[in-house]
Specification:
The complex is a heterodimer.
Chain A lengths: L1 H29 L7 H19 L2 H25 L4 H20 L24 H6 L3 H19 L1 H11 L1 H6 L4 H27 L11 H11 L4 H21 L8 H21 L1 H7 L13
Chain B lengths: L4 E12 L2 E12 L3 E5 L6 H8 L7 E6 L2 E2 L5 H6 L2 E4 L11 H7 L3 H4 L3 H11 L15 H13 L5 E5 L7 H16 L3 E6 L2 H7 L2 E6 L2 E6 L6 H9 L16 E10 L9 E9 L3 E5 L6 H9 L9 E4 L2 E2 L5 H6 L2 E4 L14 H9 L6 E2 L2 E2 L1 H14 L16 H13 L5 E5 L7 H16 L3 E5 L3 H7 L2 E6 L2 E2 L3 E2 L5 H20 L1
Parallel strand pairs in B: 3-8, 3-9, 6-7, 7-8, 13-20, 13-21, 16-19, 19-20
Antiparallel strand pairs in B: 1-2, 1-4, 4-5, 9-10, 11-12, 11-14, 14-15, 17-18, 21-22, 21-23
Classes of the chains: A mainly alpha, B alpha/beta.
Chain lengths: ~300, ~500
Amino acid sequence: MDLFVNILLGISIAATPLVFAAIGELVVEKSGVLNLGVEGMMIIGAISGFAVTIETGSFILGILASIVAGALMAFLFGVLTQSLLANQVATGLALTMFGLGLAALIGQDYSGKSTGDFPKLDIPFISDLPIVGPLIFGQDYLLYLSIILVVAVIWFFNKTRAGLIIRAIGENHDAAHTIGYPVVLYRYYALLFGGACAGLGGAYLSLVQTPIWVENMTAGRGWIALALVVFAAWRPGRALLGAYLFGGITILQLHSQGFGINIEPQILAMLPYLATIVVLVLISRDKTKVRLNAPASLAKSFYAST
Amino acid sequence: MTNETLLTLSGLTKQFPGVLANDNVSFEIKKGEIHALLGENGAGKSTLVKIIYGVNKPDAGTMLLNGIPFSPTKPSEARAQGIGMVFQHFSLFEALTVAENIELGISPELAKNGLRERIIDMSKQYGLELDPDRLIGSLSVGVRQRVEIVRCLLQDPQLIIMDEPTSVLTPQEVDVLFQTLQRLRNEGRSILYISHKLEEIRALCEHATILRGGKVVATCTPAEESAKSLAEMMIGSSLTLPQRETNTPGDVRLSVEHLSLKNEDPFGADLQDINFEVKSGEIFGIAGVAGNGQNKLMEALIGERFCDGASKIQLDGKEITRSGPNDRRKLGMCFIPEERLGHGAVPDMSLWENTIVTARERRQLSNKGFINIGAAHEFAEQVVNDFDVRTAGIEHAARSLSGGNLQKFIVGRELLQSPAVLIASQPTWGVDAGAASSIHQMLLKIAREGTAILLISQDLDELFAISDRIAVIANGKLSKPENVKDLTIEKIGLDMGGQSQESEIHAEA
C-alpha cells in the first residue's frame, strides 16, 4: 500500500510543473500567439526561484521571483513578436536558447546548494489519514495552486467577457480589431500570464521536486508542456489530465525496474517523449476537431493596417 | 422621411502612405433616409465609413451628429452614440456561437442580463430568425448577415452603415434584406448604404453621394438617374459593355466526371459527384454564393489536391486526374485563381519573375533547370504592353500594382500561353469597372479563338454578360447546366439558395 501511495505522490509531483507550464501556454495560444520559449521561461523561473530562496531564505520571495522572471521573459517575447512583429517560431526558439544559457550563467554559484523541504499542507488528524491523508490533504501548497489555476482558467474562458475576447482574438484577430478590441494589448496580457505560469512551473522543479540546482534541470519539460496544449485540443481540463498522464509515464519508468520489468532504461527514459509524438500524430489526424478548438489565428502576426 | 439632418460630414480628409484616401469629403445624411455611398474600389468609401465608425481618425475635417460635434476615437464610442455597422467581410468568429458573437459586438452593459432572450425577441420582431447557440461557421452567408444586423439592432442605432451588403447574397435574400431596410427606415433610422450595384441603389435609396479618387464628385437622387449615368459619374468616363457574338461550340476540351472531394475545413462544403464538360469556344459559368465549394473545385481543377475515388478529369481526351499542376499546365490548362496576391502571383517577386511561375513550360522561359532571364523579360514586357498593365516597369514587385492592374497582368500572362482550357475564379473581383470590362473582352476574344473557359464567379451580372451556359454550385453540388438565354436571375437565385439551406431555415422556424 505504501508503494501505491508513493507512486501516486510521485505522479502528482511529476505532473505539477507540466500543469503550470501547459495552462499558461494554453492561454497564450488561445489568444493566437505561439510562444515556443516555454522551456526557456521555465528554466529562468527555476533558477530565479532557487537563487532568491537561497539568498533570502524565504520560499515566498523565491516563488514571487520566479513568477516575475518568467513574466519578464514573456514580455521580451511580446516586445519582439507583438510590437516589432518578429516571427513567433524563431523568436520562441531563441528565447529558449537564451533562457538555458542565462540560467546556466546565474546558476554557477548555486550548484550543490539546497533549499530544504518545501512546506506542505498539514491539517491535524486529516493529513494523517491513510492514503487520502498524504494524497489529498498532505501535498505541497503549489500543487493545490496548480489545480485552482486550471479551474480558474476554465471559468475565465467560459464565464467572463475578457475570456471571450481572448478566444475571439485568437480565432480572428482582424475581426476583433474591426469591432474595436485592442488585439496586441490582450496578447501582451496573455503572454505575461503564460510567462508567469512557466516561471512557476520552473520554480516547482527547483524548489519542490528536487530542491537543488542542476544545470538544464527542466530537461525538455517545456516542450512537453507545448505538446500537451495540442494534446488537450486547447481545453484546460484535458491539459490537466494530460499532464498527469505524462507524469504517470515518467514515474512508471522509474518504478518499472523495481517491479523487475527488464527493459533498457534508455528506452524507458524515452517513453514520455515517444508518447508525446504518438499523441500529437493521433490528434492531428482529426482535422475537424483541431479546427473547432485550435485558435485560427495561431502564430500569425497582427498588424493593424488602417 | 423628415428633413432633419442626422449626420453632417464636413471636409473629412485622410491621408495614408502614398494615397489620399479621402479628400475634403462633405455631405449630410437625413433622418429616416437610405443614403447611398457610391464609388469604385479604391474610391475611399471604406476609409470614410471607418472614420464614421471610429476605426480611423481623420487628418482634417469635422462631423456633427444631431448638431453636436462627433469624433469617435474607437468603435465602442461610435456604437454608444448610435452608429451601427454591418461589415462586408463579416466581423464574425466562426468557432464561436451566435450569442457569443453578438455579445462581443455590443457594450458590456447591454450584454449583461437576458441577452439570449433579447436576441430571440429581436430576431422574431424583424423576421430574422436566429438560433443563438449555433456556431457561426455552420451558417450560410445570408444567415451570418442576419447575425450582424441583429447585433446592430440590439444597440438601437440611429444610423446603420451597410458595406456592400448584397454582394454575398442570393437574389431572394436580397429581396428580404430590402424589406428589412425599408422597415428600419420607416422606424426613423437612417442607413448609409455602400454599393456599386446601381440598379439596387436606384430602387432603394433616396439620395446618393458619389466618390471618385477620394473626392465627392456628385450628389444626386438615384431614381432620377439611369444606371448608365450613375456608372459614368462613378468611373468618370463612358463605359463600354462587352460585346458578345453567338458562336457555335466545338469539341469537348475539358470533361469532369464524378468529381468528389472532402473538405478538410469542417465549415466548408464537400464536393459531391460533380459532372460537367466545357467545349472549345465556350464560356461555362459556375454561379454560387461564396463558401459552397468553389475553392475546393478550383484546387481540384488546378491539381493542388487530388480528388477522391471515382473522380475523372480529362483534358482534350487525355486523363489528368492524377497529374499535378505543372503537368496540367504543360498540356495547356491555365489558371486565374481568385486570390491575386499569394495564389495568382507571388507578392514580393517582380513581374518578370512572376511570369516564370506559371509560363515556364509553355513559353520556354527555362532551359535544363536554368532560367532564361532574357526570355522572361521579353514575355513580361509583352504582357504589360498587350494587356495595358499600368506599371512603372517589370522590375517592380507584384504587390506594388493596384488590384485591377495586377489582375490584368495575371490574365494576360495566362492568355498569352494560348491555353486549351482556361479556369478563372472571380477574375474581376475587386477590380474597377474599366479593367473588369477589358478583362471580359479578353476572355471573349480567347474563347472565339477556341479556348474552353470555365468561369467561377459570384457576380451574376458578369456570368450573364459573358457565359454561354451556367450551372450553380450549392453545398458542393452542381446543378444541371442551362443555356444563358433559357435562364432568369430568379431561377439561378433559387438554385443558389440550395435545398439544404431551405431545410435549415425550416429547422430554425
